Automatic annotation (TrEMBL):
This is SPOR domain-containing protein. It comes from Corynebacterium felinum.
Amino acid sequence: MQEEDLKWYFNTKTGEVEQGKCTNFEHRMGPYDTKEQALHALDIARERNRQADAFDEEDDNWDKN
């Protein structure tokens, strides 16, 4: 058994959480260490994108101060 088989993934097609790489990579988000994290995969991705956008905005404005 590989480590990925113990990790949790969110299936974007079905909205279900799965343990192991059960789904095609096109519909799989993860890996996550816990089922709870995988349940919140979309929220985690949304927050990471928000942080990246804020960083990019800050980087774009480096010379405006």
